[in-house]
Specification:
The protein is globular. It is of the alpha/beta class. Strands 7-6-5-4-3-2-1-9-8 form a nine-stranded parallel β-sheet. It is built from ten helices and nine strands. The two termini are about 25 Å apart. Helix content is about 40%, strand content about 15%.
């Protein structure tokens, strides 16, 4: 068998390739069937030793208590570090601070701090609670006052849909990091050039913190394209073309989804990216395959 290897990091031998870091994002299940799939996916991905597993909660903090319960159990059951999402929507500072102290008491030291979407849904105007944190940077500063948390914040490779300009968008990211965040995790994107241009803008503005690409495997093109339209992420024509006519062909759809995601991840690797955050939608198969491409192996 040939032992020749190229200079591409994605094809290097295990002993010389970069050390990749991965994290996985889940959402709290709402039914018994969904909870079974949630734990099945968690237990399949935990042996890959992710940096952390994060658990979201709904608009307006609607699943806050369930998030705390799931995050606490993830850490207890698997030993994997768990990060809880936290927003400042519809809550006073005291209420949010109580949640943060609850995480602290439960041994949760990682938080994904987000402004959050209004209860009315994605894209609706955000109005801070009169006694609440006014934005994500303010929230990060509040968390930092309470304890030594590892804090991740959001970044938008195609600009936040409510941001008036690129300059304002990058300034907002800088404020969040300067307030005490450890890293930024991007919104999903499907054109790597969008990510590279965004990182260039951030570095030019003096941002040095890691900007981790958030990767969304396309389990369902219809579902993901609908969500992308609502959150300001675009889907390139060449990606859409690959899924044309596959609505009634789930097997081919899954194969195409694997190829599209693998192509995206390996291109990022070959351009020097070593950290990845995967949006799982509580499914493990595609993410397991992508992690394997990065050299991650279960115990």
């Amino acid at each position: 068998m040939s032992t020749d290897y190229t200079d591409r990091p994605s094809r290097m031998r295990p002993d010389v390739r970069p050390n990749f870091q991965v994290s996985f994002e889940f959402f709290p299940p709402k039914t018994d069937v969904m909870e079974e799939r949630f734990w099945d996916s968690i237990h399949k991905l935990a042996p890959l030793h992710p940096r952390f597993v994060s658990v979201t909660y709904g608009a307006g903090g609607s699943t806050r208590e369930r998030t705390l319960r799931m995050v606490s159990r993830v850490k207890a059951d698997t030993g994997v570090d768990a990060a809880a999402h936290l927003t400042c929507v519809g809550a006073t500072r005291d209420e949010v601070d109580t949640v943060v102290r609850g995480y602290q008491e439960a041994g949760i030291s990682r938080i994904v701090a987000l402004r959050g979407d209004p209860a009315e849904g994605i894209g609706k105007p955000f109005t801070p609670h009169p006694k609440g944190y006014k934005n994500a940077a303010d929230l990060v500063a509040g968390i930092r006052r309470i304890g030594e948390f590892d804090i991740s914040v959001a970044a938008y490779p195609e600009k936040h849909p409510q941001s008036p300009s690129w300059e304002a968008d990058i300034d907002n990211l800088k404020r969040k990091l300067d307030a005490g965040a450890t890293r930024a995790i991007t919104q999903m994107f499907f054109d790597n050039d969008d990510y590279f241009r965004f990182v260039e803008r951030a570095r030019a503005a003096g941002i040095t913190a890691p900007i981790v690409p958030g990767i969304q495997p396309i389990h369902s093109f219809k579902q993901i394209s609908g969500f992308a339209a609502r959150c300001g992420a675009s889907i390139p024509g060449w990606v859409a073309e690959r899924f044309e006519g596959l609505e009634e062909d789930p097997e081919t759809h899954a194969l195409v989804a694997s190829a599209v995601a693998a192509e995206q991840v390996l291109e990022l690797v070959d351009n020097g990216i070593t950290e990845f955050h995967f949006y799982t939608l509580n499914r493990s198969n595609l993410v397991l395959a992508l992690a394997r491409l990065l050299g991650a192996r279960p115990d």
